[in-house]
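new request in #modeling-help
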Amino acid sequence: MTGKTINSFVKKRNILLILTYGVGMAGLIFLLKFIEYKYFIRDFTTEMYIGIVAILFTAVGVWVGSKLVKRKSAEKRAIDFEADAEQIKQLGISRREFEVLELIAKGLSNKEIGEKLFISIPTVKTHSSNLFVKLDVQRRTQAIQRARELKIIS
Amino acid sequence: MTGKTINSFVKKRNILLILTYGVGMAGLIFLLKFIEYKYFIRDFTTEMYIGIVAILFTAVGVWVGSKLVKRKSAEKRAIDFEADAEQIKQLGISRREFEVLELIAKGLSNKEIGEKLFISIPTVKTHSSNLFVKLDVQRRTQAIQRARELKIIS
DNA sequence: CTATTTTTGATACCAAAGTATGAGCTATTT
DNA sequence: AAATAGCTCATACTTTGGTATCAAAAATAG
């Protein structure tokens, strides 16, 4: 769950992607050569031929470009999501406290949180109170805001 | 601020975009022709020439593709943002109630909201209470959650 | 100009949230 | 075995939040 693990994962995926594109492009060139020599044998003028190449490779480029951008934003999201666990540990937030935080952010009352986690209201209050100290806030609404800033909840 | 206004705006932008790309491509083709006839005059083999065309147009395509995707997501965001005003009116949320909602979401207490808006605590309570009815919630934490779902706040 | 909505405020009361303190229990680590 | 950390719960108290009801300016629409 460390940054290095995810980074190497992303690198592997990118190498695969580039390979795929490379093979695809080579295939396209081969296809063009094949068409040129086997079927039309110079029936097309050089201009037309170049036009076809330009259109085809523009299309390939558009596809690659959109893929790359989508992948980039997906990586960004992955990195954002990863920041969570680190932050939680760094702030010393315990497992139970985090569960309470999530339910607070969902808008549950202390009573509802207690029912959902099978603990008493005083216990919920203890957890939330400790949580607020660790998040350096006074109220649960602030805790929601803060936790979202720190990306420990969505 | 209506949907139609934004849609026509977006259409205009897209037409401009396509024109720009078209002119750019035409310019590239012209440049290639220019190079072909004025400088190299068949010094390059057809294969090399096609290779250059393929690489250039792939690059153009990648650029166009990424631009298109970025524009698409930007439009999506604009549409999401527009949904706000509509929803707010549909729910009958008043200007002042919305201001209170925003400050609640920022984690402010009723007292702090009152100070910021220069109104008394009872007034803040009146607004928030009416707001909760319109959002169909019981607590301010739920209101935050609900308002985010409805995209009337970020 | 009048009708209506919005905004403002008060009072009273109850519910929920938050703090402080203390304490028992259970793993885990040293 | 002892220390540590996390989870649990209780009691008491204070603060904040939320509802209900009423009412009066102020702004806006018709």
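bot summary: The first helix of chain B runs from residue 3 to 40.
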